[in-house]
Amino acid sequence: MSIKLIADSGSTTTDWALVQSTDVRYFKTEGISPYFHTEDQIQAILNEQLKPQFLDWNPQDIYFYGTGCASATNADKIKTQLCQLFPSANVTVEHDLLGAARALCGRTPAIACILGTGSNSCSYDGYNIAANRPGLGFILGDEGSGAYLGKQLVARYLYDDLNKALSDRFTECYGLNKDMILDRVYRQPLANRFLAGFAPFLSQNRGDEQVEQILRESFSAFVNGHIVRYEHSRSLPVHATGSIAAAFSDVFFNMLSEAGLQPGRVLKTPVEGLVSFHADE
User: Which residues contact 241 (CB under 8 A, 6 or more apart)?
Assistant: First the structure.
């Protein structure tokens, strides 16, 4: 049986699994995004963060599922760097949404969602994506994602719409003013990660009515703007993966139920499900 290297890469973190028979090693690196990283930056992440993990293992088959890799150009950008690092390996690069669907659903039709730094969803036929709502990124879309949640929180803070107790806690926690926030969002790189970094504040302040409102509105926008639009959405379970899905699964499932949909299961990360999916290949 060949040694397999399996990766699920979001904008913030890449989860890796190195598999030989029943022996599996898991590790993490920085997220790799062909939208936000140059080829040199991708090569640096692979060489400095990934390669030292390998010890005496040499993978023959690599399955990389990454954000932005629905585009053939972006997928080739990642594949080129992996082939340089592992010239003898068979390298397959696919969209992270397909990876999420395979991890969550196995070979059973369902609706699969990603709710992490960004968000996405698809109708899955048991092996491939049958339908996908367009992903517009954190500026125009990404409803229900960490970046979207952070954007709603920060906007309310800057508009002085948060209650005093919540606003004071935000100030004490982050020490940011308007100019600092706008600089990070509009002038600095990786603004989506910056905004998603405020999601833990929402988790830490559950029970505050304004926090609950932000969560309900954000997940409602995702469910009603995307999930209900899929054909047969009411006859298929709706599964989700990602840090935001795991942190706020109760709110997400409530929004699904209110829309007449079937809540499925949540995985914090798809990588273990992908190990199972590729076990017999």
Answer: 100, 103, 104, 112, 113, 114, 115, 116, 266, 267, 268, 269, 270, 273
Residue 87 lies in a domain: yes
How many domains does the chain divide into?
1
Model-wide pTM > 0.70: yes
CATH of the domain at 43: 3.30.420.40
Say if 41 falls within a structural domain.
yes
231 residue type, one letter: E
Give the span between the Cα atoms of 111 and 100, in whole angstroms. 10
Residues 13-43: pLDDT tens digits? 899 999 987 788 898 998 888 877 888 888 9
| Regions of the chain where pLDDT drops below 70 | 1, 55-56, 280-281
Is the distance from CB of 53 to CB of 16 less than 8 angstroms?
yes
Structural domain contains residue 128: no
